[in-house]
């Protein structure tokens, strides 16, 4: 079977397993789907990513498909448009952001550390604080908005899940912010050493990273007014076009 087509079929089948609650973890759904679709060996790098499966799952949920397994040929409807031009690909990243963010309103946070409530509301608060401070800095704003998306994917290793989800859909600079945000928090807590402090302080975006950490810490206020997710994505689209 052609490699891209196999990847899409596994992706769609994994999304079905998650949608029907036959599996609850992305890694288990991915490997179970692969075994069901092909008896051939499939290496891990050829399997769909968590983000690809999440987007397929969002497609299933949004179209209200039945819970019963679909025939194999229906997997083909989840496919990429090979004719998409560069502008389409650039625009599609905002759809990917939405796919990651929309389910986050169902992720409840620890009330002791996050009295504001759900994960999406926290992320929107952090974005608003970041926008007040750096409304012109797209990378900074995207990092503020997406820094916690992994908590909606893998609660046991959410930072790794966040990085895996973002590495192909954000800029290297935005990725650096997200990657180093936990380290910056640990510096504030005094639980990490001088070497890491020097590394981050010496970085050209070290001050912005400190600001992002403050926004993250302060974005935990119950009842704080925030923009809707659609309004936030619209703002980022317009900023990207400028």
TrEMBL record:
Residues annotated as domain HD/PDEase: 115-230
Gene Ontology MF, one: hydrolase activity
Keyword Transit peptide in record: no
Species assigned in the record: Fuerstiella marisgermanici
Annotated InterPro entries: HD/PDEase_dom, HD_domain
SUPFAM superfamilies: HD-domain/PDEase-like
Pfam families recorded: HD
Assigned keywords, A-Z: Hydrolase
Protein's recorded name: Putative HD phosphohydrolase
Domain of life the protein comes from: Bacteria
């Amino acid at each position: 079977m052609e490699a891209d087509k196999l990847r899409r079929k596994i992706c769609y089948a994994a999304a079905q397993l998650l949608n029907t609650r036959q599996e609850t973890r992305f890694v288990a759904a991915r490997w179970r789907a692969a075994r069901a679709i092909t008896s051939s060996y499939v290496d891990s790098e050829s399997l769909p990513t968590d983000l690809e499966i999440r987007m397929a799952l969002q497609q299933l949920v949004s179209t209200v498909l039945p819970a019963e397994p679909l025939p194999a040929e229906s997997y083909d409807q989840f496919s990429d448009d090979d004719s998409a031009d560069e502008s389409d690909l650039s625009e599609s990243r905002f759809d990917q952001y939405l796919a990651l963010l929309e389910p986050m309103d169902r992720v409840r946070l620890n009330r002791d550390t996050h009295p504001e409530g759900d994960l999406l509301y926290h992320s929107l608060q952090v974005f608003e604080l970041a926008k007040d401070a750096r409304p012109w800095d797209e990378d900074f704003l995207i990092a503020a908005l997406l820094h916690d998306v992994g908590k909606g994917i893998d609660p046991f290793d959410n930072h790794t899940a966040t990085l895996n989800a973002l590495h192909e859909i954000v800029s290297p600079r935005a990725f650096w912010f997200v990657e180093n945000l936990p380290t910056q928090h640990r510096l504030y807590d005094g639980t990490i050493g001088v070497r890491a402090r020097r590394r981050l302080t010496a970085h050209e975006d070290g001050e912005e990273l400190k600001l992002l950490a403050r926004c993250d810490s302060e974005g935990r206020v119950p009842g704080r007014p925030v923009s809707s997710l659609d309004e936030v994505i619209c703002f980022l689209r317009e900023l990207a076009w400028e």
